[in-house]
Amino acid sequence: MSTPERVWDAELVHPADRLPHTGDGNQPRDAILVDPEGPPAAGLASRDQPRDALVLDAAGPPGSGGAVVLAEMVHRASRRWPVRLLAWLVGLQVKLAGLATIVAGLAVLATFPLAQFVSLGYLLECSGRVARSGRLRDGFVGLHKAAGLGTFVAGAWVLLLPVRFVSSMAARARLIEPGGLADRGWSIGLWFMVLLTIAALALWLIGVLMCGRAVESLVSGQPITAAWRLPPRRRAWEPRLYVWVRDRLWEFAVGLRVPYYFWLGLRGFAGGMIWLVLPISLLALGSSGHPVAGFLGALGLMLVLLYLPFLQTRFAAENRFAAMFEVGAVRRLFRKAPVGFWLAVLVTLAFAVPLYLLKIEIVPREAAWLPSLVFVIFILPARLLVGWVCGYAARRQRPRNWFVRQAARLAMLPVVGMYVLIVYFTQYTSWYGVASLYEQHAFLVPVPFLGL
Description:
- Helix content is 61%, strand content 3%.
- By secondary structure, the chain is mainly α.
- The chain folds into three domains: 1-76, no CATH class; 113-138 and 258-438, no CATH class; 143-255, no CATH class.
- Helix 7 (258-285) packs antiparallel against helix 8.
- The longest helix is centred in the middle third of the chain and has 40 residues, at 181-220.
- The protein starts with a strand and ends in a 26-residue tail after the last helix.
């Protein structure tokens, strides 16, 4: 019998996914057979199935070739309270650093065309995950990866300070006396500092990768030494450290899921624009001598605002574009949590109103990420709240009583009405005029201006 794959319990996912007992007498009690080609989950067919046997990743370990894989459960060893306290403090610091990096990264992405959809896709994914699980903590996606990226960027910025200083001195020497002794000396020093900085950045990258793996092992309860284990040599000329760094960088790049977030954000933007374009266009006509069209646009926008946040969240949770138009499903969820829906609409629209102040005057392109930072700080909590409300409503079995539902409906009307009134008058204060009505940052790209 082949040697089982050792899997720590901290790495296992989906505890309810188990495979039927095979009846093989040689199968150990804490091992299971996983079919990579089979379904990801199967029912528990026998009481002989061990309680701690779970389905592993359907892809299987490298080199399995699609064959049946034997897995052995390795329980996490108990740790003393100082180690647990250290792990908790380190985990908290990593989460805070990751959250700060995510907010800053989303703000920077929101200032670039096309990259705005990546930022919107991440916000939708956060809301969708909370809606699926019902836990707010699941909405903070990729904190560990973001913490590692932020650590590397901060360290790289510090390491680049000496070469930037030498570069400025070389430029001044060339300006004062081109070809002189000072110019040649600073130029040679600049080349030396560039090479030294490249080496320092490479070492810093390796250190961040190793420390990141060690932190993950510490927080999850795995042995820290396992995080630094180098892979076996595949080729005689290929260094093991190079293979390790290359694989970690590839895993990090793939784990960012940039194409997925872009596609999710693009579809979320398209669905939101489909809902908003008609009422906003009618509302814009109201300012050009068509009061009836403006009144109909205001009523239509009020109706859209009651459903659009939850439609986008359901779309992100189910990853189906058709869910963007399933109004009946949102109405059924509303019956189960009317007060939560009212609160989600209130917070979403209230957090969007102050952000219109940043659209009064155009922002220089080089400082565009600063107002975008404020936008992301306001939009992310609203998305998480909408996701939590949808998840809470989906898990309730019975709807609320008729009086609570009607009271929540009536309470929503002044909220959306006041927001539509404010949006209508922002066309007279915004830099882009009537075109600013289409910049609904609460539902579209998180940027206070077109950015195109």
